[in-house]
Amino acid sequence: MTQFGVKLRNIRKRKGFTQKQLADSMGITVRAYQHYETGSRTPNIEKASKLAEILEVSLDELSVRNCSTESA
């Protein structure tokens, strides 16, 4: 499982969604959604935006970037 997939699964569970509920909300099949969680596919920006909207998180929170900075 990819870092994105782990993060997506954790957010989905924290928000109380099943894979089917989230897939239905996005208008995709459960299998297509499962590909995101397993890491075999990465959503394009439109799908990622829709995921963030449904899960009520920002794209930054959904992304795997580490946004921490170090002070000089």
Report what the structure shows.
The chain has 72 residues and is an all-alpha fold. It has one domain: lambda repressor-like DNA-binding domains (434 Repressor (Amino-terminal Domain), Orthogonal Bundle), CATH 1.10.260.40. It is 62% helix and 0% strand. It has helices at residues 3-15, 19-26, 30-38, 45-55, 59-62. Helix 2 crosses helix 3.
Please give a handful of descriptors for the protein shown.
single chain; 72 residues; mainly alpha; 434 Repressor (Amino-terminal Domain); 5 helices; globular; disordered C terminus
Main CATH class? Mainly Alpha
Give the CA-CA distance, first to last residue.
35 Å
Instruction: Kindly report the CATH topology.
Output: 434 Repressor (Amino-terminal Domain)
> How many structural domains are formed by the residues?
1
How many helix segments?
5
Name the beta content range.
under 5%
Rg result: 13 Å
CATH-level-2 architecture: Orthogonal Bundle
Name of the CATH superfamily:
lambda repressor-like DNA-binding domains
Order of helices and strands: HHHHH
Biggest β-sheet: count, sense, barrel? Answer: none
User: What general outline do the C-alpha atoms trace?
Assistant: globular
Low-confidence stretches: 67-72
Mean pLDDT: 89
The helix-and-strand class reads mainly alpha
Number of DSSP E strands: 0
What percentage of residues falls in helices of 4 or more residues? 55-70%
